[in-house]
Amino acid sequence: MDDREPARDVAPAFAELGGEVSDDVSPAGRDELVVRRSAAPPWPRHRPAASRPTRWSRKGPGRRLRSRRSLAKWRVAGRTPAITGTVVWSELGHPRHLIADATEVTRLRTGAIVGVATQLLAPAEARTCAIIGAGAQAADQIRAVHVVRPLTALEIVDLDPDRAQALADVVVGTDADKAVRDVDIVCCATTSTAPLFSVDSVAERAHVNAVGAFRPTMRELPDALPADATVVIDEREAALEEAGEVIHALEHDEITEDQLIELGAALTDGVPSSAGRTVFKTVGIATQDWEIARLLAQRYL
Fold it and tell me: Where would I find the beta strands (DSSP E) of the chain?
């Protein structure tokens, strides 16, 4: 099987969906979408949880997705997923249900949405990539980028060189500043709470994907990078609530909310032409989970 096959299947569907909806909206007319984001405080000795119930109908039977995720508090050697949980897909009039591992759904949809954003924002001639973080998200980040910008050079950076080497037989390293210098595309998939590299290390026309930080206290990018780039996010409310890089840059007056462009709008209306850097920041939204579940149900139910 071609390593790029999962991304080939999912990314086009995401591109089509992205232009239609974002989280917490109910489009009028022929389609209906109801999405609610909620977070529950942890019970004693339990992990905090987030719930994203979603209902979608399009000229046919109603379909419901319920995703319950637990945010892991502790990790051992990077092996415990940051998010665990279950995704359940149900359709009116259908006797069977689909139950999927939320960790795998997250991995697929994060890779797919990065592929969509990279196709939109990275220079057409981009062929080199550095990925920082060799954890669970890394492989699908690479696959998705490779689908839309066939790579000729790749470097994987991780604090554990052996883990990076196990991911792929390519150049590995531990110096993020050195790795991102002069490459066309940078992918960040870590749980860092401090910037991974200096803005001066990033090429003038580079495209940067940041997928790791999903709490206000986490961030992978220096404030000066979004301040000097076209910044696209998956959904405004989610980014303002969860994206540490966005929150930190706003609090320090490096950017304004007006500079944030939602991916759906960017796919529909385009982005301002720029010869400079571009950044895509994703924290994940329920409609992305919905689309992965829909594709799984389409294939297996």
Answer: 31-35, 38-40, 49-51, 54-58, 63-71, 83-91, 98-101, 128-132, 153-157, 171-173, 185-188, 207-210, 229-233, 260-262, 277-281
- pTM for the model stands at 0.77
Residue 267: give the domain boundaries. 125-284
Tokens of 34: 């109801």
Which among 195, 186, 200, 201 has a CA at the least distance from the CA of 279?
Answer: 186
Number of domains in the chain: 2
**CA nearest to 279, candidates 206, 215, 219:** 206
- Span 140-198, pLDDT tens digits: 999 999 999 999 999 999 999 999 988 888 889 999 999 999 999 999 999 999 999 99
Q: Are residues 172 and 83 in the same domain?
A: no
Which pair of structure tokens corresponds to residue 138? Answer: 């890394």
Is 117 among the domain residues? no
Separation between Cα atoms, residue 280 and residue 245, nearest integer Å: 11
* Terminal-residue alpha carbon distance, the chain: 22
